[in-house]
Structures are given as C-alpha cells and as structure tokens.
Amino acid sequence: MLVFPAIDLMNGQAVRLQQGRRDSAKVYSSNPPELARAFAAAGAPRLHVVDLDAAFTGGMQNNHETIKAILAATTMDVEVGGGVRTLDACERLFALGARFAVMGTAAIKTPELVAEACRRFPKRIVVAVDAREGKVAIEGWTEDTKNDALDVGLAVAQAGAAAVLYTDIGRDGMRSGPNLQATARLAAKIAPCPVIASGGMARLEDIDLVKTTGAQAVVIGKAIYEGMFTVAQALARAAQGKV
Predict the structure, then answer these.
(1) pLDDT digit string (tens) for 131-144?
(2) Which residue among 95, 100, 152, 226 is least enclosed by CB atoms within 10 Å?
(3) Considering the entire predicted model, what is its pTM?
(4) Three-state SS string across the chain, please?
(5) Which domains are present in the chain?
C-alpha cells in the first residue's frame, strides 16, 4: 500500500482542519515547499495538496503561487485539489506541474464535466468522494447532499477516474481512526478503480487496518504533523507484507 502525506494550504501556509471546519485551522508551517522536500526525502511517492482557499471560494481565491513553489521543490508526483470544478482549472494545475487534479464538487453538480475531464486527461483525474454519514458533502464540505457515496464512487470510476479519494468527514483531522467499513464497501464496489483512503489516521496500526479494506493508498496529515509517527515510519509500515 502507498502512503501520501498531505499539505493543506490556507493563505500560503500549511494548516490542518478538524472535520473540514474553516475556523478550526491550525498552522503547522509557513514554508510548505520545505515540508514537501522533507516528505520527498523520506521517500513518499506522492504528495496530496489541498487548496483550502480555492475550495471555500469556488476557485475565486487560490494558493497557486505556493503550489508552484511546492512543485518546484520536489520531483514527487503531486495531486492537487480544492475548487477544481472546470476543465480550465484542471489545465491550470497541470500547467503548474501537478501530475493529478482532484475534483470533488463537480462530481455532484456537473458529472458530465468530470466524465469529460477523465476523457481529456486520462489517468490524471482523481475524484474526491467526501462523505458525512454516507452522504456526499460538497463546496468545501459546507453543503450536504443526499447523494450516496457508494453510488457517486461507482459513477466516477465508470467514467474513468484514475482513483477515488474517499474521506470520512467526521473523522478528518480528529485522529479517531479511519472508517474501515465504508472504505471497504467502496473498494469492493468500484474495483479495479483504486481507492485512496483519507480521514482519521492516528496510529501506525491504522495503516495495517486500512490494508484490509482493499484501498491502494492512504493520505495522512495531522498524525504526521502532531508527531504520532513519521512519514518514514508510515512508509515502512505500509511496505510490510503482512497485515
């Protein structure tokens, strides 16, 4: 299984939120490119970047200059999400040097656009399915919908998504452990499309547990920033053959 460390950006700084609440932001670094270099030095294969300002404003504000600096600081593959709701937004991220663009809200509001993005940029569109009690939330997690996470995941997998990034909003940033049951249900439903698990990682043992769900990768943020374990330790645990 793969491990992708996360950098969430707000006002050019690396922050973490609790359950996606903007007012819960805690700043961990004012130098995100240096964080990216450290993660790369530890051996991380991919970096997960979320532009929170773009997510909360629908792309009206962004951290593109910081993202550009992050991309210049490392040769890691980088996936970038947050407010990516048009083909032009995808193209801008690719022009900056991102390997993958992460779309979320668009999968609910304009699913035909996501399907077109998957066709136009094959194997470069990751779709975020962010769920609160099994239902997808959009617009930076500020708007709940009645769309079932499993159904949305299957639809975007069939449309050609490179992967589905599944986040349990209630666990995100809480270090309460991942939602194993929901992750396993999604992985089984959309196979062979890869699932990237996110939300709630707290202990190295959680990596062992996520392996059992069928997810192919896991995004880890707050547990790293809070010193629960290092990126190198997480990578070593993920590489172990037995669960």
Answers:
(1) 988 899 887 777 88
(2) 95
(3) 0.92
(4) CEEEEEEEEECCEEEEEECCEEEEEEEEECCHHHHHHHHHHCCCCEEEEEEHHHHHHCCCCCCHHHHHHHHHHCCCEEEEECCCCCHHHHHHHHHHCCCEEEECCHHHHCHHHHHHHHHHCCCCEEEEEEEECCEEEECCCCEEEEEEHHHHHHHHHHHCCCEEEEEEHHHCCCCCCCCHHHHHHHHHHHCCCCEEEECCCCCHHHHHHHHCCCCCEEEECHHHHCCCCCHHHHHHHHHCCCC
(5) 2-239 (3.20.20.70)
